[in-house]
Amino acid sequence: MRRTLLPLAAATAALSATLLACGSTDEGASECTPGPELTVGGEDDLKFDAESYETEAGCIEVTYVNNGSIAHTLLVRDKPGFKLSMGREDVGNVELPAGTYELYCDVAGHEAAGMVADLVVS
Question: Domain segments of the chain: what residues?
């Protein structure tokens, strides 16, 4: 029995290290190689630090920074598997082709209060 658990423990440790290295997501980190970078800030007034963001298409490395003290999340509408959460900062990768996307916070009441922004990917 001990021999059976050792490979399982090693595989679990390797998976955990991979997920931590790539940032936080609901269903696992994106396996893309980061290219363009995007920084988004969350504010205490339940807004992002901009109404619109722009970046290039590809595997985008997103840094989510808390500019206040209230915890927030960052999701891309209709892009399952990508979710950043923060106390202070979180980083993750998301593959996006050219288009316009909506960023939002899914903490109860935050989206309804206006915590949404456009993301234009060219």
Answer: 2-121
Distance separating alpha carbons of residues 22 and 82, to the nearest angstrom: 11
CB 70 within 8 A of CB 60: no
Assess whether pLDDT exceeds 90 at residue 47. yes
pTM (two decimals): 0.75
Q: Return the closest-CA partner of residue 96 out of 63, 62, 66, 65.
A: 62
- 2-121 folds as Immunoglobulin-like (2.60.40)
Task: Provide CB contacts within 8 A for 39, sequence distance 6+.
Answer: 62, 63, 64, 65
Greater confidence, 15 or 99?
99
Non-local CB neighbours of 114 within 8 Å, separated by 6+ positions: 46, 47
Compute φ and ψ for 18, nearest 5 degrees: -65, -45
pLDDT tens-place string over residues 69-113: 999 999 999 999 999 998 789 999 999 999 999 999 999 999 999
